[in-house]
Structures are given as C-alpha cells and as structure tokens.
Design brief:
This protein is 28% helix and 25% strand. The protein has a 9-stranded mixed beta sheet, with helices on both faces. A two-stranded antiparallel ribbon has the order 2-5. A hairpin with a 4-residue loop joins strand 3 and strand 4. The protein is globular, with a radius of gyration of 22 Å. The structure holds flavin-adenine dinucleotide.
C-alpha cells in the first residue's frame, strides 16, 4: 500500500490572524508551522505502516504552497513520512478551494496512492473541504471526520464522528480520508529524525510536471471572489446573575437558557 498525506504550511498558532485589506486574503507573513491537524493524518499513516496488518511500501507527504512550505514537508518527514513532494508555481498563487483541490489531485494522480490522508481542517482557511474536492477529482470515495481506521488488504473499516454519534463505514481502496483530531495523539519527532529530515527525498514540481491546466488555477482559474471582509461583531457584555437566593438563581438561569432555546 502507498499512502499520500496532504500537509499544509499555516501561520503559527501564536501569530495573530490578520486579513490583508488590499488582497482581501489572510496575511500569511510571519512565523509559520505545519498545520497541527495534519500531524494527526501523518500519525494515522505511521500507525497503519507500523501496525503490520498491511504492507505499506511508503508514506509520501504532499503540499502545495510557496517556497517556505518546504519547512512543513521537513516536519512531516521528521514525523515519519519517507519522502515528500512540493507543488510550487507562481501560477498557483491565489487559488481558491476548488482550484487548490484540483491542483493537489493532479499531483496525487502522478503518485497513484492507495490511500490519501488529510487533516480535518487547515488552521488558517478552515474550509474542511479539500478532502471532498480532491476525492471528486480522483473519483475515489471520501470519508470525513474519521477517528478510527482498521486496515485490511483492499478495504478499510472506519469510524466517523457524527453529530448524532458514530458511523462505522467500510470503504474500498483507493480512498481519500480526512481524519478528526480525536483519532490519535501525534508523536514528537526525535532529534535524529529532525536532523535527518533534510536528507530525505523532496521532489519539487511545477504545474507542467503534473499536467495542471493553468486556466483552472490561480486567481483567474478560481471560481470564488472575495468581495468584502468584515471584522466579527464585538462581543456583547455578559449578564451576571447574583446568587442571593439559590432557587431564584436557578429559575433565572433556566429562564435565560429557555428564552434562547438552549434547553429542550
Ligand atoms: C479567492 C481566494 C484566493 C485564495 N488565495 C490563496 C493564496 O494565495 N494562498 C493560500 O495559501 N491560500 C489561498 N486561499 C485559501 C485557499 O483556497 C485554501 O487555503 C485552500 O483552498 C485550502 O482550504 P483550507 O486551507 O481551508 O483547507 P481545509 O479544507 O480546511 O483543509 C483540510 C486539509 O486539506 C489539506 N490541505 C489544505 N490545503 C492544502 C495545501 N495547500 N497543500 C496540501 N494540503 C492541503 C490539509 O491536509 C488540511 O488539513 C484563497 C482562497 C480564496 C477564496
């Protein structure tokens, strides 16, 4: 089995997120890191590889992003991926979700994986959609919010976290699966793995290398336009209920919740 894990470089969690009012995009300058949700996808791949139920020939980390995104790939490799692929090209700048998913699918086609793993969301865009877009282009089944994977030769049995409980779904490979962050506790890279990461194979590819139709990516190839950006409304002051008489306090709290239809 060959596993590809999609990983993204995002602004570090400690950096305050700002919108650039000129480009109407997230200001991605400043300290960056591997999307924390993707460390769960890498860990899931490593657990399948180390679990021994199936023979995993390699785990490949794949990203689309500017030059700096190689650091996310180094991190992915230090967490266990065998090699990495970096899709980078000026033509890809300003791609929206649809264009990003198409471009990533083209890289994946050139790798022919049996299983594609992703994080549930990126820490910056938070669209939760790339898995479905990629699966559509690859014509593969897609599962989201997976928190348990049992592997067999040509199929997986997965548990999905849903609003009403859990779904158990069997999926035939090849498939695209985005994992929920409850699936595992990602490992920390060893010092040796960090030092060795830069020595592992990293292939840099442009749009021409993976047959990306340039008219389907970048700002012109994107189907969405950001028309306006607005700051979130300021938080209203909370209501303080003083506890002078506990029965009365409980009644006030229940009435407050009931008014907002927060209790059945
Ligand atoms: C008009 C417009 C222009 C934009 N321009 C840019 C831009 O110039 N630069 C930019 O970075 N973003 C840009 N974006 C945001 C870009 O569309 C999203 O970053 C991208 O579509 C992925 O969505 P997401 O990050 O919300 O992913 P989600 O769907 O929340 O992520 C789910 C998972 O998909 C995988 N994934 C997501 N993105 C990548 C990636 N690039 N490489 C590998 N794996 C990935 C990860 O495993 C992640 O955990 C733009 C958006 C719009 C609407």
């Amino acid at each position: 089995m060959k596993i590809c894990v999609l990983v993204k470089e995002v602004p570090d969690a400690a950096v305050e997120k700002r919108m650039d009012s000129n480009s109407m995009r997230l200001d991605r300058s400043g300290e960056k890191n591997l999307n924390p949700f993707d460390t769960h996808a890498i860990e899931a791949a490593m657990q399948i590889k180390e679990g021994g139920a199936v023979d995993v020939e390699e785990v490949v980390a794949v990203t689309m992003g500017p030059e700096s995104a190689v650091r996310a790939l180094h991190k992915a490799v230090s967490l266990g991926a065998d090699r990495s692929v970096h899709l980078t090209d000026d033509a890809l700048a300003d791609s929206d979700v649809s264009a990003t998913g198409y471009a990533l699918a083209q890289v994946l086609k050139s790798e022919s994986p049996d299983l594609v793993l992703l994080g549930q969301q990126s820490d910056d865009g938070e669209c939760y959609t790339i898995g479905a877009v990629v699966a559509d282009h690859l014509e593969m089944p897609s599962l989201t919010q997976v928190i348990k994977i049992d592997t067999a030769a040509d199929k997986l049995t997965c548990e999905r976290q849903a609003e009403y409980g859990y779904d158990t779904v069997e999926v035939t490979l090849p498939a695209v699966i985005s994992v929920g962050d409850a699936i595992n506790e990602p490992r920390y890279p060893s010092l040796k793995a960090i030092m060795g990461a830069k020595k592992k194979q990293l292939d840099s590819k442009g749009t021409g290398d993976v047959e990306i139709d340039a008219s389907k990516v970048g700002a012109d190839g994107s189907r969405t336009r950001v028309l306006a950006i607005n700051p979130p409304p300021a938080k209203q002051a909370g209501e303080i209920i003083e506890d002078e008489d506990t029965n009365e306090t409980v009644e006030k709290i229940v009435a407050w919740l009931d008014e907002r239809k927060l209790i059945a």
